[in-house]
Amino acid sequence: MIVVVAEKPSVGRDIARVLGCWEKGEGFLKGENHLVTWAVGHLVTLCEPDEIDEKYKKWRMDDLPMLPEHIPTKVISKTKSQYSIVKKIINDKDTEKLICATDAGREGELIFRLIYTQAKCKKPVDRLWISSMTDEAIREGFANLKPAQEYDGLYRSATCRSEADWLVGMNASRAFTLRFDALLSIGRVQTPTLAILVKRYHEIADFKPEEYYTVTADFGDYTGQWFDEKVADEKKANRIPDKEKAEEIAKAVKGKAARVKSVSAEAKKELPPQLYDLTSLQREANRKLGFTADKTLKIAQELYEKWKAITYPRTDSRYLPMDMIPRTKLTLQKLPEEYRPLVENIPWKEDGKLPISKRYFDNEKISDHHAIIPTPQTAPVDKLPPDAQKLFDMIARRLVAVFYPAHEYDAIKVITESQGHLFKTTGRVVKVNGWKNVYPADKGDKEEEAALPALREGDGRTVSKATVKKETTKPPAPHTDASLLAAMENAGKELEDEKLREQMKGSGLGTPATRAAIIERLIQVGYASRRGRAISATEKGVSLIAIAPPEIASPETTGKWELALDEIAKNKRDTGRFMEGIRRLSTFLVEYARDTKTEASFPEEMRRGKGKRKTSTVKPIEGVKCPLCGKPVQENSKAFGCSGWREGCHFTLWKDGLKRGGGPELNEKLVKLLLEKSEVKGSTGVIALKDGNFSFTPNGSEAPSASFPMVYEKK
Questions:
Q1: In terms of DSSP bridges, do strands 652-654 and 679-681 run parallel, antiparallel, or are they unpaired?
Q2: H/E/C letters for each residue in 36-59?
Q3: Strand 685-690 relative to strand 693-698: parallel, antiparallel, unpaired?
Q4: Which residues is 224 bridged to in the sheet?
Q5: Domain C-terminal end among 361, 385, 401
Q6: Mean pLDDT for the chain?
Q7: What residues act catalytically?
Q8: pLDDT band at residue 34 under the 50/70/90 scheme
């Protein structure tokens, strides 16, 4: 009997159906030659510190760092019954060999190998490696099984990742928790991801908005914006610092003659976008559909497993292998009816072949899996849940688009002169719409520019009106799932250039399969929060990064560890050197926590031990006095208030009081400015303390959107 071990029951049932295993047993399906069982996720995991040594039950700085030579594994109690079933089956005397059919990736490899080792199994193993769950793909995979030894590099990489996270996480979390008397979670990938959010937090907090003015001239059938040709930075060339000067320019040209000084047209070409890997799919689904990274992954996994509609989603490749050209052609022909006109309009070659480009088909750019595309099995689009339909539509259109020609246009720039002042107008003339025909017209597309009349140098016009507009420089936008995923993929660098992103492959934070979980984990432990699409660091997260050394908080440094894991998987790096570096880092983090003189406050954190809760930590705000009684102002986890509250002064500013009205969460810096000046102008509006009230008024509004009394009385 050949035993197949799948990762999930649903996948196991699909494989069993193809193999003709219809006999149901407890935790398995059996056929004439095969028996299919499953792992139900993770059946085996690394032991906790106190399971390795009793002394680790009590958290003590003197017992750190914990550096066991070997980290033993244990059976997870929640799924112990299924483990017992799998162990009995794989060690049965009638079992000739095993087939590892867990997810074809680093973590799937680890799941199987841990079970195999824990069960002390010695049977030979083959590996099933498939990229879609269609019956055809499963049959093809079983026809091309490979010895498990060919994936030893992937297993070593997965083991190093798992043990590195244990060593860094267990040691750093305990050391910093003990040092700062608050339960802190620190991780090899989690903490540098938080550092990206904290960097943006400071960029926004430190941003000082600047006011400026622009002048727009209306020439009747087109408009132009004033600019200073002496300013090299095009983004700043239209800014006029003084209102008076802007009004002078508008007055000088209004009603006056104007002449077209120059007209230039630059031919431009936009190639079709590349196929999706998981990260690019998550980013675009966030931008276009508002899906979180986690939601996109879950829907994609369902499209893969349940509906058999797309290929394996947890991939980091945006290319297809050359031998998939025939299958890709079949996939296009099998797309649901609504895509048929788009497929027919592909510029097919005379012999019926697809127009192939190395931009999409490249054997050298294939990792464990190829790009995400639909399967040749016609997807039941009408049966898919609405969100799954939207995601499938993105993937299907992207596959069609890559075979369309480039989008070509002329970028037009017109310079018009009036009374010695220059006005610039930009537009575009589309020559070949190309791949953009695959996508419905997007009225909100920022790239779309106004159509211009046919203009030539020397043409005359009259300035019918000139408008002065007050503008304000904007702070960097908070991160979204899309921008944070980009920064994680490129170790802190938000790279839009496809070539540069490709060069950074393997050196990002985490893997495509784990990034969504890392973002959700930061939110779960209170280091980050999500408002709409925006993800921001919380004060707790900011405080953690303030005390964490660069060795654990630097995205670039951690990216190097991830690159090393990638090289281990490809048998290009020694595991011993990698783990030695991780041990040195773990030791350093413990010593750093023990010796640091930095202080930080983490209010109302759960302490170690059952049922013990730390009392609220109160921090005085240096040099800030209560506006009502003059006593020092202090901060706790929820508010800023008067230290004389026991004597009856109830001055209170709730940290999240203004958020419902679109205002910011209060921090120490804002409160200092507010109590000093009674009013703080920011990029989004004005915070004020006036007439006993604490309020926020958005820019452009005359009335506050949020207002609270600054005296809090318990009822």
A1: unpaired
A2: EEECCCCCEEECCHHHHCHHHHCC
A3: antiparallel
A4: 217
A5: 401
A6: 90
A7: 312
A8: very high
